[in-house]
């Protein structure tokens, strides 16, 4: 596997690089990044062969979109794919730099959830202005899940399906965007979305990894049947599959529980017996399923980007995959690289 490998989404013909650029870090996620550092990150990812870039208004109050758009403005627009998300409007307001959850040192903005038709249209206009583009390759309805909205999730999801998604369909019909879908971290919510509307592409984070393969039973067969592609995020499950079972390991944005730590120890032991690093196996496993069009990876610095490129290119022996199955660490029906 190489970062620059291409997989074509059959429904739209969009050609995705195997590794996509996850734009959260340049929105000051878990730490500040300067404008110059953000530009260098994007340039280096381009040098490694990345041609798919994903961002969102929620990644730093629009900061990630702004930085990504300015970093890519020197590139021919036909040479790369660009996606962002809807569901939040971001409006300037007076005030000092602020924080928003794990995003720090942000421009002062009023950020509001809005999955209505008008809200989606307004969000897309704002995003395209920030990124200096007149066309988007993909748009995802973002975070209409229980993690974000709690008990109000059904109300927000219904608004997205009934009001917001028709706005995306209109933009698709006008040629403003090529592919439309949902971007959430919960498999059952994604299934509901694929069944409810005419989805082209979905972004699923953290739910199909070496530690979780439930979508094999439900979401992936449904997507294959309907020609829906999947962009995967969270191939390292918030970091534990990258760092291993260290004391501060994170799983699904929280401290890793004991049972997860134990499984990662077992995974790491099998990988070590073949002299292969666990994160290389995790990254290549995520891309092996044919419904997956790209695996988006967020990198905090140039060293992490270099490492991700090296992990993607690592030679993983076929016997390693079988050893994981023999140890009941990997489902027999989970596709692996050939």
Automatic annotation (TrEMBL):
The NADP-dependent oxidoreductase domain, residue ranges = 19-327
Provide the protein name.
Aldo/keto reductase
The family database entries (InterPro entries) matched by this protein are listed as: AKR (IPR020471), NAD(P)_OxRdtase_dom_sf (IPR036812), NADP_OxRdtase_dom (IPR023210)
What would be one Gene Ontology cellular-component term for the protein? Answer: cytosol
Q: Which Gene3D superfamilies match?
A: NADP-dependent oxidoreductase domain
Give the lineage: Bacteria, Bacillati, Actinomycetota, Actinomycetes, Mycobacteriales
Q: Which organism is it from?
A: Mycobacterium yunnanensis
Alphabetically, the GO molecular function entries are: oxidoreductase activity
SUPFAM superfamilies membership: NAD(P)-linked oxidoreductase
